Amino acid sequence: MAGVNKCIKYSMFAFNFIFWICGCIILGVSIWIRVGSDPTADIESFQSAANLLIAIGCIIMVLGFLGCCGAVRESRCMLLMFFIGIFLILALQITAGVLAVVYKSKIEETLEKSIAEHIPFINQTKEFKDNLDNFQKENKCCGLINGTNDWGFKNDVPESCKCTTTNTPGCTADGYYEQKCLSKVSEVLKDNISIIAGVAFGLALIQLIGLGFSMTMYCQLKNK
Hints:
The protein is an all-alpha fold. Mean pLDDT is 78; it is low at 38-43. It folds into two domains: 6-94 and 193-223, no CATH class; 108-185, no CATH class. The chain has helices at 6-36, 44-73, 76-103, 107-116, 126-139, 181-223.
């Protein structure tokens, strides 16, 4: 019977050793972020993200360990467990990437429905109004759906909605920016989704290499 190809064996080990190191780095950084966060601050979402990274780091470390040990010990069981783990993650990853691409075109419509429930903005929290005010200043836009009407009455409209000069392009007759900020927000979200989808599909190619190594070695061990 033919033995295990040494090139495949050591490539499998090297691939998973790097995979394991990445898991260690993610786990270490996420724990440092989680432990070092200020407990008195309102950062619940920040801590939730750190907890998610801790879970991801642990999963990567376990899979990397299985892959390394499976390659060194030539264990079909470990290789099979590694293959199943990577395959499940890959399936979820591709699903998330496809959904991101599919729903990218519906972002503006979804945002509009969600924002409509918070109009007029004058009734919202100070933090919400300050953030929107700064966004309007940076992007030279006003309101999100209906322009100045989103804020309520004319005397409620912030200075950030007003054009710097009366002859500024894209201004209404009464001196306010004509462009709505919803289009700007939608552009930012679409760009971020494109990056996430690109990373997801890029990682998928690397994972396919790992799947190829593990299945090739598994089949060679089976024949052996």
